[in-house]
Specification:
The protein has 339 residues and is an alpha/beta fold. The chain has helices spanning 2-13, 27-36, 43-54, 70-73, 83-89, 120-130, 150-170, 188-208, 235-249, 266-280, 294-304, 311-330, and strands spanning 19-22, 63-68, 93-97, 102-104, 112-114, 134-141, 173-180, 217-218, 256-259, 287-292. An 8-stranded parallel β-barrel has the order 1-2-3-6-7-8-9-10, surrounded by 8 helices. Strands 4-5 form a two-stranded antiparallel ribbon.
Amino acid sequence: MKSQVLRDIATTIFAHSKGLLAMDESTPTCSKRFASLGIPQTEEARRAYRELIVTTHGLGESIGGAILFDETIRQQTIDGIPFVKVLVEAGIVPGIKVDIGAKELAGCSGEKVTEGLDGLRDRLAEYSRLGARFAKWRAVIAIGDAIPSRSCIEANAHALARYAALCQEAGLVPVVEPEVLMDGGHTLERCLEVTEEVLREVFCQLYAQRVRPEGMILKPNMVLPGTTCTKQESVEEIADATVGCLLRAVPAAVPAIAFLSGGQSAALASVRLNAMNVRFKSRLPWALAFSFARAIQQPALELWKGQEANVLIAQQALYHRARCNQAARRGEYTSEMEN
């Protein structure tokens, strides 16, 4: 019965070509983005920005779920309405980020492991009471000289699997996010090799921890050349490499794969997602969707700049970006939509 409930939640989130909005930035990350635009780095400024997001008219047409931060799930609108209630009334399923960040991995220079398993069962119970119906945990895998190591891959895959098992025990859908970073000069082929190795290990560990694949969501990176690599492949080549990797490594029972944007520009993330759905959608066992943060939020944030007078135009930009990605899920996105 619980397995069917979990699958129903995942299905609801991605129905009608919708996707996830990641608005789970930690306080330091949010402050960094605010500082770059001259926005005060205060709790009230963060609350106001998040209210801008959750009250965007029509957002639920293209966003099926929103990933919140611990601070955000407890916040309210200026009128005292909990953000969770606003989201639910808009038809958006609330979720929560539950890891506490990536820390240096002992014995593995330049590599990290995500922490947060201690006390997680109790935190999941609390978040469920607060209205969360799914959770997210992010692992970070860097590509470089002699890395990633097997130690790093196995440590992060094991943590992801234990987190996912605890989520399903609590009745929450786990969003499993093993991110192979796009920073660096590595080639597309190297990213493909690492991403496939990481995904295979993640699902091996998920199986060992008895996680039901039909009751989870995978949030991977796209297979991309490093940002400083001299050769940058075409949209079609990236689509082929990414989907080929997923077909070899991800069980058909997983209901949805929702890509992270990972630092891609808003338009480029949409173009690449669109190409995958144009080329492969009719042949895939799982939905190919989005779980973008900056690639949806950044245009709105740059317009808002912390000014109440700019809220409406910022919300229009957020709505537009979400609609572009919904179109990309359908394989209907075009560059003309940007105008």
